[in-house]
Amino acid sequence: MLNYIWKPNKPKIIPWEDVEKYLNKGYIAEEKRDGARMALHLDSKKIPESVMFNKYRTYDPLRKFPELKGVIDKLLSNMEQQKIKTLTLDGELIVLDSSDKDDFWQLNGRLHLENPMKIKMSTSKVTYVPFDVLEIDGATFHSRLQLEDSTSEPDHDLYWRREQLQSICANVLTPVKRVKKDVIDIDYCIDNNLEGFVLKNPEESYNKTWYKVKAVVESNFNVVSVEEKKQNTVLQLQDEDGNDVGGVVYYGDIDSDRLIGKSVEVRHMRGNTEGLRFPVLNKVLK
Known about the structure:
This protein is an alpha+beta fold. The chain folds into two domains: 4-214, D-amino Acid Aminotransferase, Chain A, domain 1; 216-284, CATH 2.40.50. The protein is built from eight helices and 19 strands. Strands 6-5-4-7-8-9-11 form a seven-stranded mixed sheet. The chain has a five-stranded mixed sheet with strand order 2-14-13-3-12. The relative contact order is 0.16.
């Protein structure tokens, strides 16, 4: 199995009102898919070998995600045609819903499956959306990626890396979509089930700072119960249709009788079909 050290380039979160400032500086915007960050390493010299990894662990994609076998085989074929021996892509694992839009909760459930039979029977099939190239033939383009026998070549700009990505993935994978200025808003994210957008300077190397805006919305929910825990107090919530949406941490004075039945304003990530994501309590409404 691959030996590696990788600290992914983590985009800096910025407010929506700062987006135009970076676009005016020449930054490009890419869709931030609602998936799980994952690198894909292919080595045509070993058997061949395919490995997926993130900051925390390593996966055998042919065991964990057998539906990717066809994609991996075609990428290896492209590598052979282009005389590339090793390749590492940066991208996201996603699961699409019936409307071909990202479904974070299906992906979350799929990632937790370990039993081979359950994996085979699962209807939540993953796909891979690459957005950058981390390494080609032992030359790494990110200073915080170390592979076996690799050398660092961190100066290639995004234009060059994107060209390599499109060539290697031709007729196999579609790289993440770049979007024009006039569609960069939260409604576009909500309509397309995106996490947000990532802004990058196309003339800079992989090591430079990226910026991200997230599809965060504010919604009102009803408090149905109060759970006092050792570390905090959690308000359990329902939406206006009476569906349970999970809880949010509450830091004020605890008065269950006063809180139950109240409405609260919560800031959270877009989408709450299986529960609120990253909820923050804004205020208790009168």
